[in-house]
Every structure is written in structure tokens, then in C-alpha cells.
Design a protein that fits this description.
Elements: H1 3-6, H2 25-36, H3 53-56, E1 72-77, E2 83-89, E3 93-99, H4 113-119, E4 137-142, E5 145-155, E6 160-165, E7 170-176, E8 181-188, E9 203-210, E10 229-235, E11 241-247, E12 250-256, E13 262-268, H5 276-279, E14 284-291, H6 292-300, E15 314-317, E16 330-336, E17 340-344, E18 350-354, E19 360-365, H7 366-373, E20 384-389, E21 394-399, E22 404-409, E23 414-419, H8 420-427, E24 436-441, E25 446-451, E26 463-468, E27 484-490, E28 497-504, E29 511-515, E30 541-545, E31 548-556, E32 559-560, E33 564-568, E34 572-579, E35 588-592, E36 597-601, E37 606-612, E38 617-622, E39 635-641
Parallel strand pairs: 11-15, 31-34, 33-39
Antiparallel strand pairs: 1-2, 1-29, 2-3, 4-5, 5-6, 6-7, 8-9, 9-10, 10-11, 12-13, 13-14, 14-16, 17-18, 18-19, 19-20, 21-22, 22-23, 23-24, 25-26, 26-27, 27-28, 30-31, 31-32, 34-37, 35-36, 38-39
The structure holds copper (II) ion (CU).
Copper (II) ion binds next to loops.
């Protein structure tokens, strides 16, 4: 085990930590040995026993009796599976997966015409992309709280952002960001910076992580000094990219202010290096604050460029071009090197940037950033109201709505709960200000953390979830690939109490948690949701136009409206299926053997598929989603004539 891991946590957390101020490359290499420790469970830090939750905090019992419902929804990023996962909390039960970026065999995502249109296709009709790496998910706001309209999720690999409608819990739009690689942080605005009447989300901000040549069309391949990353703003309704800001450094996480005026991204590699030793060569990086009103004025005034084929206006947010507060679009607030995660406190006052390589969290007061922009403060550094030690490897912060921050410590495998006001007093010289309130061991190496309504004005401090990157010995071994460990923690009292472990498939990263009454999902579609709905079984038909054949049919347990349909070899067949069963929970499936087709139709939902009937023969198309006692008999024959 590395020396770093052997160092004990300082119980006060406030003084005499005696640790290296910053981690170096050798310490980072220690992370590998942390993972390797899994072979020797005895050498691991002792897991803290979970007290019986029901006795300790009856309000947050995680073990629901059969038939009992969770009190909260959790929206989890699906990681490699490119979906959004819906959990019931605090039980941690997985309720649903909403496919976004990657095909899904249950709902036929990537199979149906409707989903392909959302996902994007090549000229030959095949999907543009079939892999994804989702990290972060956030939902739309109104008056500083979630309004239950939309959620958004990123795909880091192909720089895409997906929107999820929270009425049907489906993905309805995907946008690919131009001039961007490694799209990482995402956050919607919370209101308009100028128009006070617009107190809800209208913009979605996206942070580009990797620097690339602009345009990235084969020119400037080796001119690495010119590689730059891009911060983007999308229209929340149209999902079109409104504008972009060229920035120094690599965008990690994003946060937005409650007045709509500022968006922030914690920026590592402001050196703009292309190798890791270059990326960590300077002692301080920056948390960037974007002045939204000024950027939009600059775009309106035509002070922008475009790159390559993209028509999206790009303004200059480089450090050099933004030194003068009077004209700056972006403020570069200095924070310790390679920061990780920036989170907005629910009181609207502070953004907290975690140190990662530094054992500190930096507290930045938003009003002081605005003071700098508006000429009321000379030094931008004065916006830093605290920079205090919290433990090794601080990454992300959740809030309990009672003035406390709860930060994950990746290297210490801990959550640390600390009081923000006390940290500010300590920073200002009050050495008796014991800002660290509690520490809790988690299992193991935590990354993201979020609490109930954490980054909203109604943070209620009930419980939190922490995404542990390594589970090691916490679950039955299933071969070399370990599950990750999402842990649920009660934060309603002074001491944090570990309630439950939940294995998750890799790798979820980020999530949000909100009260269940915030959304009222629809249980049945409206026939008019689809312009091609087959509204009556009598409308069923097989229509031919040249080599194009349209098959229209309905499903109603236990039968499809057509007992058979005939096409000819080589026909382009479009099959439209409407489920006329309107009872909640009565979903049918539709699969065609040897034609790689399977999808579901929910009550009163319509979907379509298009394919070439290239194999003559009889194909039993059948219902793949259990619906009725005669489910096995629910079939139709596709007859392809030679
Ligand atoms: Cu069926």
C-alpha cells in the first residue's frame, strides 16, 4: 500500500495535517496500488459497520417492505451503457434505464426509425455512433428548484448531449457539439441573467475537456500550443448550440449561479499541455466564471469567429484576452493545481472547487466575482473567501442545506462534512474555528456525491449517495470486473450514518436525487403523440409504391391486427405498429427473426422500423414483451416471396 494511504486521517481536519501540500506523480501512481489492495482485504482500511438504519433514523430506512414506495427518484448516469438510470431512493432499487446514446434491445432504441432519428444516422441509415461514455446528469430548474420538465446527460466520447423528457422518461433530442472533444461537465442555468421574468432554465452549458486544433480538419496537427477546448451553450428547448467560448485549460465540472449571471467550470491544465507532466506543471489552475450576459452581448455585437463548417459563434475566453475586468467575458479565479469538481451551495452564495491534487477545498464567493466584473473589486483573488484542508483527494461536494458541505476524499476513502462559514472564519485567522464536523469511511475511493436536492434552493439534508469507484470486497466476486459501489448515507443528523451498499454496473459517475412528487410520469401514451399512429385495427394495410412497402398494423392482446403480410424479396419495408391496448403496464413487443428487429410499444404508443426484405421465406414476427395468457400465441407471419 502506498505511503499516501498509510497516512491517517486527521480527526480535526483543521490543523497540523503534516501532509504534503500537493500530490506528485509518484503519489498518483499509488492509486494503482490502492486498487491492487483488493487481493488482500486484510490490508484495507476497516469498513465502518452500518448501524441499523431503522433504529438510528426511522425517517430514512432503506429497507422498504414489499409494496412500499420510495420517497425519492435518483437520476444516475449510466456510464458506458450510454443510458440514464432511474433509481428509487433511499432503497437504491433500479427502476428503469432510459437509453440515450447506445442501442437498447428492450425498447428498440437504435432499431426503430423514431429512435434512429434522435440518435443520428449515416447516409446509409446506420447509426452514426454506437458507443458512449455518460458522466453527468442534471435537471431543469424553476425558482431555484427542479421543475420536473427535463434532464440532460453528456456523452464524453462523441461530444453529445441528450435531453430526457421527464413526463415519459424518454430521450427526445440529442445534439452533437461542434469544435469539441471530451465533452464532460454539464449544467443548466437556473434563470435568465437579464430578464427577471424568466425564472426557469433556458440554457444548458457544456464543458469541453480536450484541446484540439480549431478547426480540427487536418490542419495544425502538431501545433499543440494552439489546441484549445470549448465551453458551449445550448438552447434548452431547441437543443441548438447558441454560442461557444474558447477557453484555456480543460473543462471538468460545471456549476451555475441562482441569479443566472454566472456559469463556472473548474479548469485543469490551464497550461494547455498535451502530456500529463505538462498538465500538472504549474501549482495553480483556475475556476473559470463566465459572464453570461456579456458573452451574449458580444455575440449580438458580432464579436465572434466561426471554425470550419460550424456556424456557431465562438467568442474569445482565453486568459490573455480577458485580463481587463471592464471587458472580460471570463474570470480566471486561481485555485490549486488540477482541481476537480465545482459545486454551487444551496444558499446561492458560494461555489466550492475541490483540490484533487491539493488536500483543500476553495470557497469562492459569487458576489465578489461579480464585484470584479463590475469594477467594484480590484483583485479577482479576493473572491476566494476560504481555502481549507479537508483531506486527501477532495473531488466533489454535496450540501445539506444547513450550511454544511460534504466532500468526497478519493484517496482517504472518506466523506468529510465541513461547515462553510466556519471554514471561512478559519481562513480569516480564527484557528479555533473547527470547520470539520464529521468523517465517514466509504468503500472505496469515492468520486461523485450528491444529496437530496443538493444543488437546489431546497436542499433538505435527508440523505446522500456516494459513487465509490472501487468495490473490492463489498460484493460477491464475479470475475475480474468489479461492480461499483453506490452507497447511501443518512445525513440528517450531526454524524453521517452509512445505510446501504448498492452494486452498479460501470461506471455511473454523477447523479441527482429529488422528491418523488416533483414528477408525475405518464403511464399511457396519447395516440396523437405520433403523426403516423394506426388508430383503428380497420386502418391496417399493406401498401406498395414501387419497391417501397408500408405495413400498418396494431397490437391488442392477444393479437396483431394483421395475421400475415406479404412482401417481395428486395422490397424496402416500413412497418408501423400502434399498441391500441390502453391499460397501464400493457406493453407489447415486436421481433422479426433473422431481421435483427426487436422493439416494444407501450400503451397507445406508435413505433416504426424500416428494413430491406432481403431473405425470402416465412418469418414469425412475435410479441417479445409478456402481455397476456396468450402471449406466446401473439404472432403474425411476414412472408417474403422470392
Ligand atoms: Cu403481446
Amino acid at each position: 500500500m502506498s505511503d499516501i494511504m498509510k497516512q491517517e486521517s486527521n480527526p480535526s481536519g483543521a490543523t497540523g495535517m503534516g501532509r504534503r501540500r500537493f500530490l506528485n506523480t509518484a503519489a498518483l501512481a499509488g492509486l494503482a496500488s490502492v486498487a491492487a489492495c483488493a487481493e488482500k482485504p486484510d490490508s484495507l482500511p476497516a469498513a465502518q459497520a452500518a448501524p441499523a438504519a431503522d433504529n438510528a433514523h426511522p425517517g430514512t430506512a432503506v429497507h422498504l417492505k414489499p409494496g412500499e414506495l420510495d420517497t425519492h427518484y435518483g437520476l444516475w448516469s449510466g456510464g458506458h451503457t450510454g443510458d440514464m438510470r432511474v433509481l428509487g431512493l433511499p432503497s437504491g432499487r433500479e427502476l428503469h434505464r432510459i437509453p440515450c446514446f447506445v442501442p437498447d434491445a428492450l425498447v428498440g432504441w437504435g432499431i426503430t426509425n423514431e429512435s434512429k432519428q434522435v440518435m443520428g444516422t449515416k447516409p446509409d441509415g446506420s447509426l452514426q455512433y454506437t458507443v458512449a461514455d455518460t458522466h453527468h446528469t442534471h435537471a431543469s430548474y424553476k425558482d431555484g428548484n427542479y421543475d420536473g420538465r427535463y434532464a440532460w446527460i453528456n456523452d464524453k466520447i462523441n461530444s453529445r448531449v441528450a435531453r430526457i423528457r421527464l413526463d415519459y422518461f424518454i430521450c427526445d433530442k440529442i445534439t452533437e457539439l461542434p469544435n469539441t472533444q471530451g465533452f464532460h461537465g454539464i449544467f443548466p442555468d437556473k434563470r435568465d441573467p437579464v430578464d427577471p421574468a424568466i425564472n426557469y432554465t433556458t440554457r444548458v452549458f457544456c464543458g469541453g475537456e480536450f484541446g484540439i486544433p480549431l478547426p480540427n480538419d487536418g490542419h495544425g496537427l502538431d501545433d499543440t500550443d494552439a489546441y484549445r477546448a470549448m465551453f458551449s451553450c445550448l438552447d434548452a428547448e431547441t437543443m441548438e448550440v447558441r454560442w461557444q467560448v474558447l477557453v484555456d485549460g480543460n473543462c471538468d465540472l460545471l456549476a451555475t449561479s441562482y441569479d443566472g449571471k454566472l456559469a463556472a467550470t473548474n479548469q485543469y491544465n490551464v497550461e494547455n499541455g498535451v502530456h500529463y507532466e505538462d498538465m500538472m506543471s504549474v501549482e495553480r489552475d483556475a475556476c473559470l466564471f463566465l459572464n453570461i450576459a456579456r458573452i451574449e452581448e458580444a455575440v449580438k455585437a458580432g464579436r465572434f469567429k466561426t471554425f470550419g463548417n460550424s456556424k456557431v459563434p465562438v467568442v474569445d475566453g482565453s486568459r490573455k484576452a480577458n485580463a481587463d475586468a471592464k471587458t472580460a467575458l471570463v474570470a480566471y479565479v486561481s485555485v490549486p493545481k488540477n482541481p476537480h469538481g465545482v459545486n454551487a451551495s444551496p444558499d446561492g452564495k458560494y461555489f466550492i472547487c475541490s483540490g484533487k491534487l491539493s488536500p483543500t477545498c476553495t470557497v469562492i464567493e459569487l458576489s465578489r466575482v461579480l464585484d470584479w466584473f463590475e469594477g467594484r473589486a480590484e483583485k479577482l483573488d479576493d473572491a476566494i473567501v476560504a481555502e481549507v484542508e479537508v483531506g486527501l483527494g477532495p473531488l466533489h461536494t454535496a450540501f445539506d442545506g444547513r450550511g454544511n458541505a460534504i466532500t468526497t476524499l478519493f484517496l482517504d476513502s472518506q466523506l468529510v462534512k465541513w461547515n462553510v462559514d466556519a471554514a471561512i472564519r478559519f481562513h480569516n485567522g480564527d484557528k479555533n474555528a473547527n470547520y470539520v464536523i464529521d468523517r465517514l469511511d466509504v468503500q472505496y475511493q469515492p468520486g461523485h456525491v450528491s444529496a437530496t436536492h443538493s444543488e437546489t434552493a431546497s436542499a433538505d439534508g435527508k440523505f446522500l449517495a456516494v459513487g465509490c469507484k472501487f468495490s473490492k470486497d463489498r460484493f460477491l466476486p464475479v470475475g475480474p470486473l468489479h461492480a461499483e459501489n453506490e452507497q447511501i448515507v443518512d445525513i440528517s443528523g450531526e454524524k453521517m450514518v452509512l445505510l446501504a451498499d448498492h452494486p452498479t454496473r460501470g461506471e455511473p459517475h454523477d447523479f441527482i436525487i429529488f422528491k418523488r412528487d416533483l414528477v408525475r410520469p405518464k403511464q399511457v401514451y396519447d395516440l396523437d403523440d405520433s403523426p403516423i399512429a394506426v388508430k383503428d385495427p380497420k386502418e391496417s394495410s399493406v401498401q406498395r409504391e414501387g419497391r417501397k412497402v408500408t405495413v400498418r398494423m396494431t397490437s391488442q392482446a392477444p393479437a396483431f391486427s394483421l395475421r400475415e403480410f406479404r412482401v417481395k424479396k428486395g422490397d424496402e419495408v416500413t412497418l408501423i405498429l400502434t399498441n391500441l391496448d390502453k391499460i397501464e403496464d400493457l406493453t407489447h413487443g415486436f421481433a422479426i427473426p433473422k431481421y435483427n428487429i426487436n422493439f416494444i410499444v407501450n400503451p397507445l404508443e406508435t413505433k416504426s422500423v424500416t428494413f430491406i426484405a432481403d431473405k425470402p421465406g416465412v418469418y414469425w414476427a412475435y410479441c417479445t414483451h409478456f402481455c397476456h395468457a396468450l402471449h406466446l400465441e401473439m404472432r403474425t407471419r411476414m412472408i417474403v416471396e422470392a
